[in-house]
Design goal:
single chain, 153 residues, mainly alpha
Length: 153
């Protein structure tokens, strides 16, 4: 027996909102608690490549991308980029510290990467803002293009 479509949508929404909360909180921390200069220093101390570029990029990705992920805008693209960022954090910083986050370990970034990969695989669900944006910007002149798979007519 497969779960109903409504349950699938609820699960996708819950996963997106939980991931968004954590990413936005960490992006906020990088901007407002540590400052971008402080984040650059931390990235340099952790030997993250190109800290002058990577620190602000990660801060913006987590804050803005996390928010958009929660809203359901560009969901799969952002989830894939966020997953890649977390895998990079796991490999570059956290793997050598063991699993526990209290010792700067990899458990948090592992769960965040796995959650983002799940969003990439499952999609955003039907409850998402980009659906509303598409309706809002659609005009009567828009054409629907029908694509027929190869070998079928």
């Amino acid at each position: 027996m497969s779960p109903s479509r409504a349950l699938n949508d609820a699960a996708c929404l819950l996963l997106r909102l939980a991931l968004a909360f954590v990413f936005v909180a960490h992006g906020w921390q990088k901007f407002y608690d540590w400052s971008i200069d402080g984040t650059i220093e931390r990235f340099a101390e952790m030997n993250i490549p190109f800290p002058d570029v990577s620190a602000p990029s990660v801060a913006v990705l987590e804050l803005v991308g996390g928010g958009l992920l929660g809203l359901g805008i560009l969901t799969r693209v952002l989830a894939a980029v966020l997953a890649g960022t977390m895998i990079g954090a796991l490999v570059l910083v956290h793997a050598e510290n063991g699993p526990f986050v209290v010792a700067n370990g990899f458990e948090l970034v592992l769960v965040l990467a796995a959650g983002c990969i799940a969003v990439v695989l499952l999609g955003p669900g039907r409850v998402r803002a980009d659906k509303l944006l598409i309706r809002w910007f659609r005009t009567e002149d828009d054409e629907m293009v029908q694509v027929t798979p190869r070998g079928r007519r």
